[in-house]
Amino acid sequence: MRVVFGESWRGVALYGLVYAVLHAASMRFITEGNPLAPLWPPSGVMVAGLLLLRSTPRWRIFLVSFVAGRLDGHVYSWPSVVTLLYFGASCLEGLIASEILRRLRGVAIGFTRIGDVPALLLATVLAVTVNGVLAGLIGIRIGQDFAQAFITSWVGGFLGILLMAPLLVAWVRPSDAPPADTRRVLRALEAIALGLTVVITTRLAFQGVVLFNAVDIPPYALVLPLMWAALRFGLRGVTTVILLMTALATPLQLESHSTVLGGATADVRLLRLQVFIGFMTFSGLVLSAALSEQRAAAAAEAEAAAALVMSERRLRQSQKMEAVGQLAGGIAHDFNNILASMMLQVQEIGTASGLDAVTRWTVTDLTESVERAAALTRQLLLFSRRQAKEERRIDLSDSVRAVTRLLTRIVPESVEFSVLPSPTPLPIVGDASMLEQVVMNLVLNARDAMPSGGKLLVETGSQTLSATAAAAMHAAHPDLPPGEFAVLRVTDSGHGIAAEHLPQLFEPFFTTKDPGKGTGLGLSTVLGIAQQHRGYVRVVTSSPAGTVFELGVPMAEAREAVEVVAATPAPSVPVAAAPTLPETHASSTVLLVEDDADVRRMVQRVLERAGLRVVCAESGREALEHWDRLSPVDLVLTDLVMPGGVSGTDLARALQERSPTLRVVFTSGYDPEVGSHGMVLERGVNFIPKPSTAAQILEVILRRLRD
User: Fold this and answer.
1) Does residue 691 have a cis peptide bond before it, meaning omega lies within 30 degrees of 0?
2) How far is it, in rounded angstroms, from Cα 25 to Cα 41?
3) Please, which residues have CB within 8 angstroms of residue 80's CB and are 6 or more apart in sequence?
């Protein structure tokens, strides 16, 4: 808990001021017209000071207490031995009480738990008993009765600690009262009304006034405003009400004609008042502590319920995202099969002779459209986590530089575009093409946010992410570690993002663009890439003056060498005749296993046009069933994911058991890691992604036949 007193000299000075005021008031009360007092407040003040000023050496608190105690009108007189003995006993009393409370209830005791009240009683009884014995012995020295000195010191110290220590702690530490459900003015008016009620009830009760000649108000009617204080103002209200009640009741009770609590002498009347104060204080402390615990339990229950609701929402969101991811992955796979067939068909058209210029331009445009569609499926695969990273040690700034030329082509001249790379290396371990995709998506979004032009800045740098900041992003990035991060920032001067759109910004298929101008996959892809790199992406600022997106990726260790990978955009598909195989491989036989009929037909045509003999099968199971009657096969080209229960890797293992020298090449619309089942697949070596050109397909086939 934060302590208002503080732990510096200001806290000690404030403590000394409070001690001096209450000590002077108590001394004045017992020396001017009222030789007896129901409680001794300085005892409680010292205990509260020892509890609150935890980091302050105790001797300083005792010294300040001694000096403050001399400011009651006797500052110029040197203290007598008796005065020093009494003060030493008071210091021992405060030390015992505070140490017991700390050991029983902890250093941050706030008297807001039910267990704090019996601990306070025990600590107070033991402390004032020691002080009472010492006071009795000192009293004998100056000619007083031991029992009288013991009882006077014991009761006064007991009530002083029991009431004043919780009161001061309550006002210094944060309030345990329920949150105010009204304005401050109404809250203040309620406090004033409570105070007036206490004043009126106390005076009527202790003056023995009979209302309407029939109804008298007993002192225990003060329990009602005490309950009001506990319910509405917590421990602060309870202790303040009891203090006000004590201050008002004491002079009335000590008057010789007061018979409310009874007692023929002032000593008896004082003792009965002390019993009354003790009962009210104990009852108020228990009531306020019980209500405080109940409020704390209700708050904890509400927090747990809110956390449960949030967890349920996250679970539903996770399940939804998983379902959407599976759907996206399946769509991407099927779409890649279509694109693979289209790619080969467009190339076949392009190889025809006698095409006019318009037709060739049309074929080129179709090829570029297939490439854009392939890029879209890559985004789907990234989102569905079915596109694995090709991790290398790279420099984030160099990856940004690698796509700068392409960025200048897609940003219109009305936008002032600038790139500000970090002057120092930013080594990370990641997939360069994925990170370039992030830059592209963020720049495209920034461009679209400035239809009338503006400023766009792409910059890289580094920053340290604290554990608190990492925890704050746990919901979207559960694997985010604190530490040093390489950072990419894309800043635009566009129209900003509406506040109601921020929670949905990274959801798949969410877009604020007009129909046909956005797929809603750009930022969800960025989020997927960030999560795969154990990094983060967030909107740093967004206002009508512009938006700042930030991507962070953990820095690689400084001692690691950084291999700069400057990936280039994928080349356009050449519209040219597919290469043919050398005569040495012209008689080679290829078993083509592909479940998609269009892809199977087009790949078969490409291979046969190159001079290869091709045998086709629609599934892995069919290939196994007809393997024995097939003539010797030199190479198997198989899809990875196929229906029928036999995958491409299952087929390869089964066939290589029968023919150990058999060469196998895999193809898939997914990433090679999906469906590989532990088999090492390398693009361009034994794996052909969909879609690929005829030249790319034949290049891999030729390389494998040469092995």
Assistant:
1) yes
2) 9
3) none
Rounded Cα gap, residues 199 and 187, in angstroms = 19
Whole-angstrom Cα distance, residue 176 to residue 233?
Answer: 8
When pLDDT is cut at 50, 70 and 90, the band that residue 560 belongs to is: very low
CA separation, residue 472 to residues 65, 268, 355, 475, 477 (Å): 46, 63, 61, 8, 9
Task: Give the single-character DSSP code of 476.
Answer: T
Is residue 279 within 8 A of residue 121, CB to CB? The reply is no
**531-552, pLDDT tens digit by residue?**
888 899 988 887 777 899 999 9
| Mean predicted lDDT score pLDDT of the chain | 81
Which structural domains are found in the chain, ordered by start? 1-174 (1.10.1760), 389-554 (3.30.565.10), 583-706 (3.40.50.2300)
Q: How many CB atoms lie within 10 A of CB 295?
A: 16
| pLDDT value at residue 558 | 38
**Which residues are 483's β-sheet partners?**
465
State whether residue 593 is helix, strand or coil.
Answer: strand
Distance of CA 696 to the CA centre of its chain: 48
Give the CB-side neighbour count of residue 540, counting CA atoms within 13 A: 13
What are the CA-CA distances from residue 56 to residues 21, 164, 404 (Å)?
21, 20, 61
Q: Where are the alpha helices (DSSP H) in 499-635?
A: 522-532, 597-609, 620-625
Cα–chain-centroid distance for residue 39? 49
Amino acid 589 reads T
Backbone torsion region of residue 677, taken as left when φ is above 0, otherwise alpha when ψ lies between -120 and 50, otherwise beta = left
Tokens 């946010």 found at: 449
Instruction: Give the confidence band of 642 by pLDDT, cuts at 50, 70, 90.
Output: confident
Tens-digit pLDDT profile for residues 271-293: 888 899 999 999 999 999 999 99
pLDDT (0 to 100) of residue 80: 78
Of the CA atoms within 13 Å of residue 229, those in its CB half-sphere come to 31
SS (H, E, C) 153-178: HHHHHHHHHHHHHHHHHHHHCCCCCC
**Whole-number pLDDT of residue 268:** 83
DSSP letter assigned to residue 683: B
Per-residue pLDDT band at 559 (split at 50, 70, 90)? very low
Site of tokens 């570029």: 368
- Beta strands 589-593 and 635-639: pairing type? parallel
* Three-class DSSP labels, 337-389: HHHHHHHHHHHHHHCCCCCCHHHHHHHHHHHHHHHHHHHHHHHHHHHCCCCCC
pLDDT tens digits, residue range 369-393?
777 677 667 666 665 555 555 678 8
